[in-house]
Write a structure and sequence with these properties.
Two copies of one chain form a homodimer. By secondary structure, chain A is α+β, with helices and mostly antiparallel strands. Chain A is built from ten helices and 20 strands. Chain A has two domains: 188 residues, FAD/NAD(P)-binding domain (3-Layer(bba) Sandwich), CATH 3.50.50.60; 169 residues, D-Amino Acid Oxidase, Chain A, domain 2 (2-Layer Sandwich). In chain A, strand 13 and strand 14 form a beta hairpin.
Chain lengths: 429, 429
């Protein structure tokens, strides 16, 4: 059994972007990707909202997403690979308090990164979208502590993409470069061995220096010079077996799909004048931030909400959406702002697992004992995957800096555990 | 079913110290402690090495342990409660590299806290303890990368105590003050409820503000104004159910007991002139730091080592010591420095769970949604329990500062998650 130069655990968008960038930098190395599913992107990637924005309060999150989105744009426009990327924009509906929090972040992004955005008055939004902006007198809205829409902020450089197309793009590139992939192979354990084996049963002993030398799978052992964990929400479970901390926790995230059948809903979905697509932007309601993602090609809305306390940190092999989460949760809030959804029930729904970084909401990319961990994208894996892959590849090559798409220099250790340098993110949604 | 003012989960040394200090500050409140075991301190407290030192590199760790140890001294001397506390001191055997790391820490503690310590030359240690200080030419020692002893540092304000006596002291005090304890009650879940219940099935919904309102146990539900988690290594499992992060991971720690039967071992155990007890100090070998804890009353040594990578983070109900961990691990290192242990096998052994704080090795004391978390003592729970209990009680009372024994002011938020202010600890052993 020969040793690979790198084995990457996880063929989701993060794993395949990482694989692709490693192979691009090292064409002659043997790089293997393994995944328990039978195709690329079948884990949490497939359960994503597949939307992107560059509106983050932290410099690092901004850089990761902005450069990744630029790259996807380049792939679609210059390379001619259809990622089904549509620049529908993001529309934040803000209460007066939300607006107070958002304003300094926007000013900062405008000054530092020349971020473009537009402000809309509540009345203008009401007439364009048919959104209810004044909830005064609505007892139910009051009970739910829902707030009036004070303003709207529209970000044009944002939109939707097809997660599967992005994953397939990386998969094809990786294979073209000579990378290997094995699907249907489940990693059960990390293998820890002494750096200098003595051949004594029970190694490694604590007085030996030891390292991760590969993975144990249900199809046998795979040895590698470097083992790269990009298994999303499954990362902490694997890392626990060798006592390495990554500050990642799994959490369920549910998405409900509602058809734009009724005329009022069709009209909402195909709201003109915000973007050149001719559909409503990805819309974020005032706190609690219920999300409305347009899916114009399918003529549906995707509705979601990332709930915090008391939603469990829980690893589930097949997380299920909960009917009541829509009916007593999302629907109740949604219909107060968008009465167009009255009596609408989802025709479909799905649930995936967030891999939340509980320290600061940023990804982690670090190496310990020949094990590289790439994860913790905290629900924005697709919109940051290209940058994260480049950073992981730079770490793999022992470089201090990665160059993100658009030649943007990024210090690799900024996403590590020990040399971490990120500001807490204020705009997690 | 009436609501308690506070329910504390865990009757270990941290839980009972917390209970005691809360009740002392609030004599009229109804405070309940529950524990799955049938007596106090039967979890990881019972599996502790029961030793204490004030030698920590971080200001916070120093304060927590120094004030707690002062308090235990006061309890034994002034209150006349026998905690079996013996000031045997700590002796660090240091390689030249270890010494280089230790020196600035000692200088700093001496300047800031007037810490007393003595330096011993290697030859002096060899003659007093019969320790081998030169390993040159020993192939096995070289294979294990063991280093010569360059110097020894002796800390007089350090020693051993009986964990059970400390726990019983807090238990009695708490009961005297009118506190309630229920043993044999296992907490299965935290209860999350809306702050303003509407009486609708499925509450809390995400648009409601919610809180932890008590615990579900195998003997029924217990409601409380504040729920206090002091369940050591079991804390993260309970917190995960409501999606709260505490940065604590469980890890097994093993202790092996060897009788001081042979004359050479007896002579080692009862080494004179380091302390007034007339026994060897708690001794730390050069890296990897194998620990030798004297137990003069029982005429035994306790031997231990806190292994890092690749020891799993793993929660076990009944962790077991591993024979090979002694035989191929501890023994191999120990016998190179202390040949007196040649051919000695343990007559007994036990294993407990560390509750490691993976951020910075300090305890956490924080509140979220009426839930107070007190834990992460990272293997130094007993030597810090009094201070931690006082800080938790101050947090319970909504005070910004706690007053540790000896009137030392401590900012409660320094051990929180959000306002955390601690330096990474360099002397974890």
């Amino acid at each position: 059994m020969s040793e690979y130069d790198a084995v990457i655990v996880g063929a989701g968008v993060i794993g395949l972007s990482t694989a692709c960038h490693i192979k691009q930098k090292n064409p002659s190395l043997r790089v293997l990707v393994v995944d328990k599913f039978n195709a690329a992107g079948q884990g949490s990637t497939a359960k994503s909202m597949s939307a992107f924005r560059c509106l983050f309060s932290s410099r690092v999150n901004y850089l990761l997403s902005d450069s990744s989105v630029d790259f996807y744009g380049y792939v679609q426009k210059e390379l001619g690979v259809d990622l089904k990327l549509l620049m529908v924009g993001y529309l934040w509906l803000l209460s007066i308090d939300d607006y107070g929090e958002m304003t300094p972040i926007l000013r900062n992004l405008e000054a530092a990164n020349n971020l473009k955005y537009m402000e809309y008055e509540a009345d203008e939004l009401a007439s364009r979208l048919g959104v209810i902006v004044h909830l005064a007198g609505d007892e139910e809205a009051e009970l739910m502590s829902l707030k009036d829409v004070y303003k709207g902020i529209f970000i044009p450089k944002a939109g939707i993409v097809d997660a599967d197309c992005v994953v397939k793009f990386y998969e094809e590139e990786f294979l073209k470069l000579g990378g290997e992939i094995r699907y249907g192979v489940k990693v059960e354990d990390l293998i820890a061995e002494p750096c200098k084996p003595l051949g004594i049963l029970g190694e490694p002993f604590f007085w030996q220096e030891s390292r991760v030398s590969g993975v144990k799978t249900d199809c046998g052992i795979i040895k590698a010079k470097k083992t790269i964990l990009a298994a999303g929400a499954w990362i902490p479970q694997l890392l626990d077996t060798v006592g390495v901390e990554c500050f990642i926790k799994p959490k369920k995230r549910q998405v409900f799909a509602v058809e734009a059948e009724k005329p009022l809903l069709r009209r909402l979905l195909f709201t003109e004048s915000f973007n050149s697509v001719g559909c409503m932007p990805f819309t974020i309601l005032p706190k609690p931030r219920v999300l409305v993602r347009p899916f114009p090609v399918e003529e549906v809305f995707w509705l979601s909400y990332a709930d915090d306390f008391p939603r469990a940190f829980k690893l589930e092999e097949d997380p299920q959406p909960e009917k009541n989460f829509y009916q007593y949760g999302i629907y109740q809030v949604l219909v107060k702002y968008f009465p167009q959804f009255k009596d609408c029930r989802p025709y479909s729904s799905f649930a995936g697992l967030y891999e939340i970084n509980t320290m600061d909401g940023h990804p982690v990319v670090f190496e310990e004992k020949d094990l590289i961990v790439v994860g913790g994208a905290s629900g924005s894996g697709i919109m940051k995957a290209d940058a994260i892959g480049r950073i992981a590849a730079a770490l793999y090559n022992g470089e201090d800096y990665a160059f993100l798409y658009g030649d943007r220099k990024f210090r690799v250790s900024d996403l590590s555990i020990k040399g971490r340098r990120v500001e807490p993110e204020k705009l997690q949604i």
